[in-house]
Write a structure and sequence with these properties.
This protein is of the alpha/beta class. 48% of the residues lie in helices and 14% in strands. The protein has two domains: 93 residues, no CATH class; 241 residues, 3-Layer(aba) Sandwich (Rossmann fold). Bound molecules: nicotinamide-adenine-dinucleotide.
Length: 343
Amino acid sequence: MTDYQYYYELRSRLAFAEKRLNALPPDDVISRVCLEAQRDAWEKRLAACVESGVGVGSVYITHWGKITMGGVMAGQDVTAGFVGNLSEKLDIAAAMRLDGKVALISGGARGMGAVEAGLFAREGARVVVGDVLEDEGRAVVAGLPEGAGVFVRLDVTSEDDWRRAVDLAGECFGRLDVLVNNAGVSAVGGIEDTTAAEWDRVMAVNAKGVFLGTKYAIPAMRRAGGGSIINISSQLGIVAMGESSPQYIASKGAVRLLTKSTALQYAADGIRANSVHPGPIVTPMTEGRRGDPSVQELMVSRIPLGRYGEAVEVAYGVLYLASDESSFVTGSELVIDGGWVAQ
Ligand SMILES: NC(=O)c1ccc[n+]([C@@H]2O[C@H](COP(=O)([O-])OP(=O)(O)OC[C@H]3O[C@@H](n4cnc5c(N)ncnc54)[C@H](O)[C@@H]3O)[C@@H](O)[C@H]2O)c1
């Protein structure tokens, strides 16, 4: 981020915090405390920027398609003409693809969820990281820019936890625009080896967890004027694999169609829902498989690109669906699998 991007990011965060503070009901003490702390942090950083001369005479684009041009002289807005070249400005816009948005990511303590939290924050979002892994989740938030994230203990199978997580997004950041239903568990074994309890365990996290997250996020998104729900399914939500477990495949297939059902039911509210279908990705979930040479060989032999994907390669797809760049995309499937389902 250049100095003047940083400067304007601070200005936009400060303005947003002030707007939210002004809109708060007088008895909403928790939100007030959160927002005042954020506002103070932004004010302090902005003051340091102005003191060092950053932001003087710079220009800014706030959003794709919404170009704001203005210079800043000694901290004051002045209207200016179009300064600099367009591609540079579009780069700036692209660098802040989630400016002003608030996202909740389940399973954000490690793996793909943690990478998405970092990427979202870098792109201007405030992020609620939810997970059952508390220490890891707090460490992810500690690695985000100051004031950009908050951790909440969230077991996605619990309705109370979802209520709390969605409420926290409102209390700390004033709104909820994006939900990434990312939490998931894997499983092994064939149909005859699988107990009913094991079936229920996987379905509870991977399928019911997505349903509950969707259910509790929607009212908050409606209040925000719309939103984007991104459900992490799998390439195994599109095609089966004899060596994988029935409950994992069934849960990911359920996510795929629940996503389309959500997209249709809430399109009129401006709420989009899309599923993402990663192939084998390097994360803690696949550590065991990657450590076994015969399994590793089998998996790689099925990936036309000849390798596992990296978490960030999925995160960029999730970022696109979270941003307004995908404003005409709903009910769709984004496959990020090295070519697996093309076969
Ligand atoms: N890694 C892959 O190859 C791959 C491929 C396709 C799809 N996926 C899916 O991507 C998503 C992320 O997977 P990953 O590879 O980053 O896995 P991971 O195991 O590294 O991370 C999953 C996260 O979900 C959390 N989680 C598990 N149960 C939870 C619960 N009940 N409540 C809240 N959080 C819970 C875990 O604590 C963990 O932080 C999962 O839905 C997974 O099924 C993974």
